[in-house]
Design goal:
Blueprint (H helix, E strand, L loop, with lengths): L10 H108 L2 H29 L3 H36 L1
Length: about 190
C-alpha cells in the first residue's frame, strides 16, 4: 500500500516547511563544518605550541651554552688573576732579595775602600782598578734593577737572569778583592 502525501498549497507554509527541511538537512552539515573548524583550530594551536616548545628548547640550550662559556671565561680570568698575583709576588720577592744583595755589595765596597785607605801606597794602587771595576759593576747592577721594575712578564725572565749574573759576578769579585785587601793589609803590618 502506498501512502499518499499531501501537498500543501499555502505559500507561507510551503516556505516555512522548505526552510525547516533545509535546516534539518543542513544542521548535520553545519555541525561537520564546525567540527572541521574546531579540528583545524586545534591542529593550528598544537602546531603553534610545538613550535613554541621547540623555540623554548633551543633558547634553553643556547642559554646553557652561554652560561657554560661565561663560567669558562670566569675560570680563565681567575686563573689569569692568580698567575698575575703570583708573578707580582715573585717579582716583589726577587726585587727585595736583590736590594739586600745590592746593599751587601755596597757595604763590602765600603769595607774595601777602608782597607784600601789603610794600605800602603803600593797596595792602594793595586786595589784602585779593582775598586773602580767593582763600582762600575755596582752601577750596572743598579741600572738593570731599575729596568727590571717596569719589565713585562715576557721580558722578566731575561732581565731576572741578567740581574742574577751581575749579582753573582759582583759578589765573586768583591770576595776576591776583600781577600786580597785583607792579605795586603796583613803583609803591610
Amino acid at each position: 500500500m502506498q501512502k499518499k502525501t499531501r501537498r500543501i498549497h499555502h505559500p507561507m507554509l510551503q516556505r516555512a516547511l522548505l526552510a525547516l527541511s533545509v535546516l534539518v538537512l543542513a544542521s548535520p552539515l553545519a555541525g561537520c563544518e564546525k567540527a572541521k573548524e574546531r579540528a583545524k583550530q586545534k591542529a593550528k594551536q598544537k602546531a603553534k605550541d610545538e613550535a613554541q616548545m621547540a623555540v623554548d628548547k633551543t633558547i634553553d640550550k643556547a642559554e646553557m651554552g652561554v652560561m657554560k662559556a661565561v663560567d669558562r671565561i670566569r675560570q680563565k680570568r681567575s686563573k689569569l688573576q692568580y698567575k698575575k698575583l703570583k708573578f707580582e709576588h715573585e717579582r716583589k720577592r726577587f726585587k727585595n732579595k736583590m736590594k739586600v744583595k745590592a746593599a751587601e755589595a755596597d757595604l763590602k765596597i765600603a769595607k774595601l775602600k777602608v782597607r784600601m785607605e789603610r794600605a800602603d801606597k803600593k797596595g792602594r794602587e793595586k786595589m784602585k782598578p779593582t775598586l773602580e771595576k767593582l763600582q762600575k759593576k755596582r752601577k750596572a747592577l743598579g741600572k738593570e734593577m731599575d729596568k727590571l721594575k717596569d719589565t713585562s712578564a715576557e721580558k722578566w725572565k731575561e732581565g731576572k737572569t741578567k740581574v742574577k749574573k751581575l749579582v753573582d759576578g759582583l759578589e765573586g769579585t768583591l770576595e776576591r778583592a776583600l781577600k786580597k785587601a785583607g792579605d795586603a793589609a796583613m803583609t803591610a803590618q
